[in-house]
Design a protein that fits this description.
4-stranded mixed β-sheet, about 140 residues, mainly beta
């Protein structure tokens, strides 16, 4: 259900090391981060909580295509002129994450809500996948 990229995980670990020890990134530029995500499943469907602290709601893009749900967001860093920066521990740049969603969920009925830096996504189960009572005929 969730796409795993081992190299992306290694990049995230390296980025955290650079950030935690105050080391400047070698490329000095923006990069793409994988935001933290909670995924829950219940009788109604899948429920995601995508953590995007500091991101403005207008900077969030959510797409569903070919069994893939993708989240992309931007948090730019705008340094005012004449300001000396001594330390930047915030995460700035692009946040992106994609998930492969099984056919048992209906990507045409996705709903999303952004609140306090968290994107909440609900994907209902497909009608064909929901349990239903079947009458048994006798004779």
């Amino acid at each position: 259900m969730v796409r795993f990229d081992p190299f992306k995980e290694i990049e995230e670990i390296q980025e955290r090391l650079f950030r935690n020890f105050g080391v400047a990134r070698p490329d000095g530029g923006n990069r793409t981060y994988a935001p933290l995500v909670d995924v829950l499943d219940d009788a109604q469907g899948l429920h995601f909580a995508v953590y995007l602290p500091g991101v403005e709601p207008g900077q969030v893009e959510l797409t569903a295509e070919n069994n893939t749900l993708s989240v992309k967001a931007e948090r730019p860093f705008n340094r005012p002129e004449g300001v000396q920066q001594y330390r930047l521990e915030g995460t700035y740049g692009t946040f992106a994450r994609s998930f492969t969603i099984p056919n048992t969920y209906d990507l045409t009925k996705v709903s999303a809500n952004f609140k306090n830096g968290v994107l909440y996504i609900d994907i209902p189960k497909a009608e064909a996948a929901q349990s239903r009572k079947i009458d048994v005929l006798v004779g």
